[in-house]
Queue: 2 jobs
Job 1
Amino acid sequence: MAEPLLAVRDLRVVIGGRHILHGVDLEVAPAGVTALLGRNGAGKTTTVRAVLGLVPRSGSVRLGGEETVQLPTHAVVRRGIGYAPEDRGIFTALTVAENLRLAERDPEPDYALVHSLFPELKQRARQAAGTLSGGQQQMVAIGRTLLNRNRLIIADEPTKGLAPKVVTEVAQVLERAAEAVPVLLVEQNLAVVRRLAGGCTVLADGRTAHRGATAELLEDAEAARRLLGVGRHPAATPQEARP
Ligand SMILES: Nc1ncnc2c1ncn2[C@@H]1O[C@H](COP(=O)(O)OP(=O)(O)OP(=O)(O)O)[C@@H](O)[C@H]1O
């Protein structure tokens, strides 16, 4: 297997005396989408926050072979991680163009890439971001991460709370983004995971419970039920809005 882009080993997080993560191992492939899965409260968001240095952590977090676990967030981010948070973090009163400008970090932000992947962001440059659809707002959130020369994009539950048609739009957005930059995708919608992610890591109770090929996991009804809490076959669950 190719060298992982991100290699997390024995990641541990303690907050307020409570052990939230106690042994997360995770590898993100150097191309395409890798999924981070698990039931509610398994520790997915905390893992992402720990990778970014937003919570105190121990263990090892190697990005492109370089250890980052001791670095502050600004130094981690400057090494090339773009983050699209669960609530999208859009400035609703500002225009699309203003939202993108506020994300500029590099001296020469790559608007050509963002506009080629998401032409709608150019067409809607002067529109207030709060008036965009959920799918369009995700384009802004993902577009911001692509403006700078990031090596990895982390998207936290980008389809959460969206209507099935919009879920399809967002899956397309992520698919296009992953052609340019590898993506670590935290996602509950298994149809999206099945469509986009070659490999996955499943967390349970703050630990890695499973790692492997996404298709194999989702075809194994018993493992999917045990690890993800889904029905007899994942395709039969309500989570599965068709992407
Ligand atoms: N700052 C905090 N202080 C105390 N407990 C926390 C904190 N952050 C998270 N937790 C707890 O840690 C556990 C893991 O939370 P986390 O948000 O990482 O899970 P998750 O897998 O992302 O869940 P979800 O799918 O519901 O977003 C939960 O029990 C949560 O209540």
Job 2
Amino acid sequence: MLDSVLLPGGLERRVMAAPLYPLFMDLEGRRCVVVGGGKVALRKARRLAESGARVVVVAPEVLPELAGLAHEVVERPYRRGDLDGASLVFAATNKRAVNAAVAEEARDRRIPANVADAPGEGDFAVPSVLRRGALQVAISTGGASPALARRVRRELEERFGPEWTGLVGELSEARKSGRRAESELEGVVDRCLSQLQE
Ligand SMILES: C[C@@]1(CC(=O)O)C2=NC(=C\c3[nH]c(c(CCC(=O)O)c3CC(=O)O)Cc3[nH]c(c(CC(=O)O)c3CCC(=O)O)/C=C3\N/C(=C\2)[C@@H](CCC(=O)O)[C@]3(C)CC(=O)O)/[C@H]1CCC(=O)O
Ligand SMILES: NC(=O)c1ccc[n+]([C@@H]2O[C@H](COP(=O)([O-])OP(=O)(O)OC[C@H]3O[C@@H](n4cnc5c(N)ncnc54)[C@H](O)[C@@H]3O)[C@@H](O)[C@H]2O)c1
């Protein structure tokens, strides 16, 4: 569902009417089909591959980096049937009609879809993500301003240093070995958190 907001200067921007539901999904070993082989497809596929998904790319032209990380490249234009067996679908071509057809097949098959040029046609949006080991901070504006989501991510990246990766790893180990080990790390957590406020 899309809604309109009026920005200063009279600019109008269409955004999701209700806030999107945030979740973190286990995609390990799942088939995820990315239709399109350009810059936007690459960005979506990179994160899918990092999450252990089986990435299938369908496009007549595929960036080399994207072909490198895909499990399967179908080097031709999309056709109906390409979404068979997919857990998630990404319509990321530069052709409106193709993205609309992909969204339609996904809807028919009840596969959640992300539509790069018409978010309201799909089911979910991809957030901007800060990652430090197991710690992930996902930023969404619900499509209001992807550029703002990216700026907030960059701002947070300056504050969350590499020490957070180690800290989360140690907390995970401590948690496995019991309450006491976990509480011993509380001081370190407090120190890291207080540094964020500077
Ligand atoms: C966060 C990020 C994640 C990712 O993609 O990985 C992401 N877009 C990113 C970058 C980016 N997006 C755009 C530009 C070009 C410059 C500019 O306009 O700023 C750039 C910069 C670039 O490409 O370099 C333009 C754009 N984006 C959308 C439309 C269509 C529309 O709004 O109708 C158009 C107009 C296209 C056109 O008309 O040509 C739509 C979506 N983009 C989203 C996510 C979802 C909502 C996120 C949110 O707001 O919560 C949503 C709804 C759907 C989705 O794609 O999931 C990633 C930053 C990652 C990072 O750096 O951290
Ligand atoms: N959501 C976002 O984050 C975001 C950001 C920028 C742009 N966009 C939108 O995403 C679209 C794609 O952007 P891009 O920079 O990756 O474009 P691009 O021109 O780099 O790549 C387009 C890709 O689509 C493929 N393609 C064309 N026809 C196809 C078909 N019939 N079947 C399969 N693949 C086909 C091409 O082979 C190419 O690989 C843009 O048109 C723009 O509207 C979205």
